[in-house]
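Project standup — Tuesday

K.O.: blocked on the structure for the chain from last sprint. Re-posting the sequence here as requested.
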Amino acid sequence: QVQLEESGGGLVQPGGSLRLSCVASGFTFRDKGMKWYRQGPGKEREFVATISAHGDFVNFAASVKGRFSISRDNSQNTVYLQMTNLKPEDTAVYYCGVWGDDDTWGRGTQVTVSS
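H.V.: unblocked you, prediction finished:
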């Protein structure tokens, strides 16, 4: 059974930084691409970033490119989302997922960007 647990969210001022973590279990983590999505208040869930199984390919939504980075530690079954220069419009619940699986999500972690 795939399980995903996100953490690292919080309240941060505009221009600040946060690093989100997602610990995965129930599948062979090193064989799967991973992704981050987010859902802002009153909005649909949207793609943020993805990373290939070995970390050699990454892709980002245009809205976060140049500000966010994604990485993974296959020895720890963990994928990270480093967020810098945060903006109020980045406020959302952030979820990690397995690439190719649209049905399994963690509980998410709340990120609030506000002064």
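K.O.: great, moving the ticket to review. The radius of gyration is 13 Å. The beta strands are 3-7, 10-12, 18-25, 34-39, 46-51, 58-60, 68-73, 78-83, 92-98, 109-113.
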